[in-house]
Specification:
The complex is a heterodimer of chains A (about 325) and B (about 325). Chain A has about 325 residues and is of the alpha/beta class. Helix content of chain A is about 35%, strand content about 20%. In chain A, helix 1 packs parallel to helix 7. In chain B, the strands form two sheets. Chain B has a six-stranded parallel sheet, with helices on both faces. Classes of the chains: A alpha/beta (about 325), B alpha/beta (about 325).
């Protein structure tokens, strides 16, 4: 399971390196599951329950990373707004501004909890805003294997990494390779390497985070109608594996990008821009963007589902590129 | 003595809050409502004592534990209930839900799901009072957890610096989710911090509505005279889990003991006020039973109102984003 794979990754990294520590609100009680068992094993020095002070403790994580610690900080995407000063003005900019002197191995776990009537304050999917800011690595894993391998890579990376975890994926199952079965003895997934999660020939669908679930459902339906969809999960948005997307579009000639974030200046916008700039002559139809409507997330279950990508919207979009 | 009508009003509103929350717990269990639910049971005296000390044209703002504050200020429980049911006749047309009740017509500037995020807002309302030369005050409810946010500290400094008519009411219900305030606050009492900003800090028994009323009245008096803000810390307790209905969040009760909960329930705020009023011969037990029955019926009516209210239509989705709509393709 996704959350369990994440938990494994954190255990492995804390075991491996004493400078890794974990902090956030109520992480000892582990109400969201990813930090389960950490406090019992690593104790109060390495597992910190913080006061409700996101700007303070995320900033403290950044500061400690400057002088040799490797913090993993847990928060919800929606609470990161409170910490924007430290994430943007410090974490993202320090290395460049100080002429490369700073090293900032800080990993922020940013959980996105949309789609369950949480209303506007608790439903953000804000990775595009962070993609727009130089200096941050933006990770968006969609499977248990990917979240494990990318979490471990983030912890070892010397730049600030934000892992956007789609809580709609928290309970999904999927194979995670056993360490013993791996040549390296552990699962490390490099940044900037996307993954073809389903091969196909008629249309390329790029899915981001939880959008991949809908993309897979759509592909299954479309197959019944004889339409073959290739699904690509970029896995990391910064750096972005342009090549895997461009190569796929070269093969299919068509592109649909599915993104749970708001559609204006979304990750989908960026991917479509890359393909139109660098792969224009391979396109046989205009690319289609399926992203969240440009409006806040309403509480009422009567309206919320209208906003997000779903299989039906993807099916229609794929057909649109083919007609 | 606090006038009888005020005391009866407090008892009514506290009972209304309690019954409202009990009904919601049932609706949540039956699956009739969705989303998270932060109940106010156990804390009724804090909001009620504070709000009854305000005038109708004074403002309040609050947090995710959002139902008690508007009801205490005299909000319409039909609209509150319909909102929590996600219906069109709700306070926010179904768009806000449980954590975001608001009624600007009676000074309820809205409840915020982002912890401490209402504190600057309420401070701003007080700034407006001063700039406009008006006499209204503004009061904000926030938790012990929220008291650790920068927004809270910044607001208190601003308010004290500019002598703003704002009352900071910290509802210390002992925990932020599972974290005791003793593990998150660096001083013994949150109210101790007031002196650092140069304003009075008052520690109050938050289970005693009359004590909350008196402390707030005093703060309101100061604020109206232009003497600036006050920080009131009401010691209280939430009986239920932090939030009900969030499937993804594991129930965790190891952070507090059953005995502790029992001890606090022995000092139930409604019982305390009722017993006091009976012993003062202001009411009889029968009066209370009648009052409680009346509130139970009003909550049932609110449930029916909510159930019969329509859901918003798809064409309502983009309404209210801007004053003049901007169309995004
Ligand atoms: C900025 C922010 N951080 C974290 C959360 C998650 N959260 C919601 S309520 C809560 C605890 C709040 O504690 P307190 O302020 O004491 O209020 P209480 O819930 O006890 O009434 C937390 C951590 C949030 N909503 N906003």
């Amino acid at each position: 399971m996704y959350v369990e794979a994440l938990n494994e990754a954190i255990f492995e990294e804390m075991d491996r390196d004493e400078s890794v520590y974990y902090m956030g609100e109520d992480v000892r009680a582990s109400i969201y599951g990813a930090s389960r068992g950490l406090f019992e094993k690593y104790g109060e020095k390495r597992v910190l329950d913080t006061p409700l002070s996101e700007n303070g403790f995320i900033g403290a994580a950044v500061g400690s990373s400057l002088v040799g610690m490797r913090p993993i900080v847990e928060t919800l995407t929606s609470f990161m707004w409170v910490a924007m000063d430290q994430i943007i003005s410090q974490a993202a900019k320090m290395k460049y501004m100080f002429g490369g002197q700073a090293s900032l191995p800080v990993t922020i776990r940013a959980v996105m909890s949309y789609g369950g009537s949480s209303a506007a304050h608790h439903s953000d999917r804000s990775y595009p805003m962070f993609m727009n800011m130089p200096g941050l690595k933006i990770i968006a894993p969609a499977s248990p294997e990917d979240v494990k391998g990318l979490m471990k890579t983030s912890v070892r990376d010397n730049d600030p990494c934000i892992i956007f975890e789609d809580s709609n994926l928290a309970g999904i199952k999927g194979d995670v390779p056993e360490n013993n079965d791996l040549n390296e003895g552990e699962l490390l997934i490099p940044f900037g390497k996307g993954k073809i999660i389903r091969e196909g020939s008629d249309c390329t669908v790029v899915g981001i985070a939880g959008a991949n679930t809908h993309a897979l459902n759509a592909a299954t339906e479309l197959e019944k109608e004889g339409i073959s969809v290739e699904i690509i999960d970029p896995r990391t948005l910064v750096p972005l594996d342009k090549e895997i997307i461009l190569n796929s579009v070269e093969k299919t000639g068509r592109l649909v990008v599915v993104d749970p974030a708001h559609k204006v200046c979304s990750a989908a916008s960026e991917i479509i821009s890359v393909v139109t700039e660098e792969g224009f002559w391979n396109l046989q139809a205009p690319p289609v963007k399926i992203a969240a409507e440009q409006v806040h997330i309403p509480f009422t279950p009567a309206l919320e589902p209208l906003i997000f990508p779903d299989a039906e919207k993807i099916i229609n979009a794929v057909k649109q590129t083919i007609e | 003595m606090i006038p009888k009508e005020k005391q009866v009003l407090m008892l009514e509103r506290m009972t209304r809050i309690r019954q409202f929350e009990k009904a919601l717990i049932e609706s949540q269990k039956s699956g009739e409502i969705v989303g998270s639910l932060h109940t106010y049971i156990g804390q009724e005296a804090v909001a009620t004592g504070a709000c009854v000390a305000l005038n109708d044209d004074d403002y309040i703002a609050g947090n995710h534990r959002s139902h008690g504050h508007p009801i205490a200020k005299g909000g319409d429980i039909n609209k509150a209930m319909a909102e929590i049911f996600g219906r069109k006749d709700g306070y926010c047309k179904g768009k806000g839900g449980s954590m975001h009740l608001a009624d600007f017509s009676i000074g309820i500037l809205g409840e915020s799901g982002i912890v401490a995020s209402s504190v600057p807002v309420a401070t701003g309302a007080a700034l407006a009072s001063k700039l406009k030369g008006k006499n209204f005050v503004s009061l904000v409810f926030f938790g012990d957890g929220a008291s650790n946010q920068g927004a809270c500290h910044e607001s208190m400094n601003l308010a004290a610096l500019w002598n703003l008519p704002v009352i900071f009411v910290c509802e210390n219900n002992q925990f932020a989710v599972t974290t005791s305030y003793r593990d998150s606050v660096s001083v013994d009492h949150i109210s101790d911090r007031a002196s650092a900003y140069g304003m009075p800090g008052v520690l109050v028994d938050g289970q005693d509505a009359l004590a909350m009323y008196e402390a707030t009245s005093e703060a309101v008096k100061r604020a109206r005279k232009g003497e600036g803000p006050t920080l009131i810390e009401g010691l209280t307790y939430r009986y239920e889990d932090h939030s009900l209905g969030l499937a993804s969040v594991r129930r965790d009760s190891s952070y507090r003991t059953d005995e502790e909960i029992e001890e606090w329930i022995k000092r139930d705020p409604i019982e305390i006020l009722k017993d006091n009023m009976i012993s003062q011969k202001l009411i009889t037990q029968k009066d209370f039973d009648d009052l409680e029955k009346k509130e139970i019926i009003s909550v049932e009516k609110a449930l029916n109102f909510a159930r019969n209210s329509p859901f918003p239509e798809p064409e309502d989705l983009f309404d209210d984003l801007f004053t003049d709509p901007i169309k995004f393709a």
